[in-house]
Amino acid sequence: MLKLILRTFITVSFLSGFSTFVAAAEVKQLDEGVVSIASRTTALRSQGIKQAFEEVILKNSGTQSALLNETIKKQLGNASSLMTQYGYFEDDGKLFLKVNFDHKHIISLLREAGLPVWGKQRPLTLVWLVINDNGQREIINDASRDPSRQVFNQESATRGAPLLFPLMDLDDSMKVGVNDIRGNFTDNVADASLRYQSNYFIMATIEPQGSVYRYQMSLYPREKSAQSLQLTSVINTSGETATIDEAVAAIVAATSEYYVGQYAIADSGEQKTTKLSFADVTDMKQLVAIERYLDQLSAIKSASIGRIEGQTIEFNLSLFGNEADLHRLMALDPRIETVTTNSQQNLDYSAIGTQVEAHKETQIYYWKGQ
Question: Fewer CB within 10 A of the terminal residue: the chain, N end or C end?
Fold first, then answer.
């Protein structure tokens, strides 16, 4: 059952055919923590609830530093007050405690603590990993039984950072070999990555070096930016660990921390507002779906319909962060397509609520739905 949990906490949408993986993934079970436990005693259950609470905080904030926040540490002493249910199950002869918490209260707690909140829609990352164990180098594929593959699953679930691995079928093998990854030949790997439609891809190696393991990793966006002549990494990191498992954890942690900086949004403390529009809204079902979508975005405090003109719906939004945060977050969602921007006179609002005329562009989106 635990393996099932690790496999299903992330939902990746598919269109027809393998080559149309939809970029980004929706992370499920953000209110749930699962911890290994020795027995069903009250004392161990209380300890397990606290561990599960820390897991949920980590998944919803994305950053390890959230666990050091004084507000979070204070709530940890009374974690059970936010619990909605708990239960035990066994897997491979081991006992586990599964705890669910009130998700709205978890988000409110993070906001109160001044911490970033990472929403359900998160970048999907393709992992190209060469691992050297027992003197053999290999590229870890999706079906690999190498123990590191399961560790990636576990770290992905703990961090709430969706990952996938290449098939390494004939198409992949013709384009990417061990030396391409070890030599950091980005063009070959970037070309092979396109079929997966992930938002980012990792090129990484884990190799023994004396009594330790040395890891190196680089994270790349799917495509180069319009301003760049070549694809450049957004993070590069390396280090030494005692085990392969620790190296895997370090790679996933570095990836997650970068995404938190890009997509998790803290309350700025300012009263920031903006407008955006959805075009070609033809029925009430679409409108309700759009309203629900906006309401759950971690960048938005509140959303209301400001204007309806034909089949275009304009929304007034109050933001936790800024407009760039909002649009960067929306760009991840496969249900959203950018149409254009519409230059017009919009009303912006100062922190004290005074209306000010400002010439701005309203971003227009198209709702593709599921």
Answer: C
pTM of the model: 0.84
- Angstrom distance (rounded) from CA 167 to CA 181: 15
What distances in angstroms separate CA 154 from CA 9, 92, 116, 161, 235, one per listed residue?
Answer: 11, 15, 23, 10, 22
Domain ranges of the chain: 29-112, 121-263, 272-367
CATH of domain 121-263: 3.40.50
Q: Produce one character per residue of 161-199: b if its CB has 16 or more CB atoms within 10 Å, e if not.
A: bbbbbbebeeebeebbbeebbbeeebeebbebbebbbbb
Contact criterion met (CB below 8 Å) for 320 and 265: yes
Position 221: which residue type?
P
User: Residue 266: in which H helix or E strand, if any?
Assistant: none
**Is-contact 171 193, C-beta < 8 A?**
no
Distances (CA, A) of 210 to 245, 290, 324: 17, 55, 46
Which residue in the block uniquely carries the two structure tokens 């299903």?
Answer: 8
CB atoms within 10 A of CB 70: 8
E strand spans, 184-263: 200-209, 212-221, 235-241
